[in-house]
Amino acid sequence: MFEGIINARDLGGIRIGGKTVKSGLLLRTANLHTATPGDLARLQEEFRLRRVFDFRSEPEAQLQPDLEIPGATYLLLPTLDTSVEKESGEAMPEEMWVNLEKHIVRLSFMKLFQEKGRDLYPSLAFSEFSQLQYATFLHLILETEDGAVLWHCSQGKDRTGMGAALILAALGADRETIIRDFDRSNDVYRPVVEKLCADVEAAGGGEAEKEVVRAFMGVSVNNFNRMLDMVEQRWGSLQQYLWEQMEIGPQECGLLQERYLA
Hints:
Largest sheet: 5 strands, mixed
Distance between the termini: 22 Å
Number of strands: 7
Number of helices: 14
Structural class: alpha/beta
Shape: globular
Order of helices and strands: EEEEHEHEHHHHHEHHHHHHH
Strand order of the largest sheet: 1-4-7-5-6
Radius of gyration: 18 Å
């Protein structure tokens, strides 16, 4: 889709009920640090980009800052609360997260990291800190009456995938449609995941260690389904979760559907 921006896609074309998401308005990507001049020009001129939502932590964003896009307002909305890990001494240096491919084989053998992989999506859904960031994201999209919006994290898959899931839920998408969009990140990252899984196996690792690679270097549909199960058990549906936790109710969903569906 772009020259220098990886894992980029438009939600346009996704079928929801008898309608289709309009093209060129809802964009999800990895970070914009590697965008080419041509990419930036397209976002400005072709997509008329109005808002960029960055779900990374502040140190991540400082290490690989987004390039500026004229006409677009940038907002840093960290969706992971790292304060608890920092207080307990379990937080990893941001430099390691940015270069995770280099370290993931070793980390996959750590029980702590295996737990991080399993708990990532539930932490995004259940943390009040994360809920506030995603609620801000959705309400600011409601305020964006023209042009496109773009949201991203580092690799454009987990935190970004959660953002896409919430938007699709607000547009009325069913669970299968939401999972299908989420899983598309694996098409992008499959080659590196397969290589690293082979490295894990060569180092004596099994399925538990390989699942860490899948969770952090691609996306884990198993873990995502588990999170959706947990949300449905507590709130009944992802749509009801939006209403109760983020004040995105029938009226707000109706406005989004009117704007983004045809």
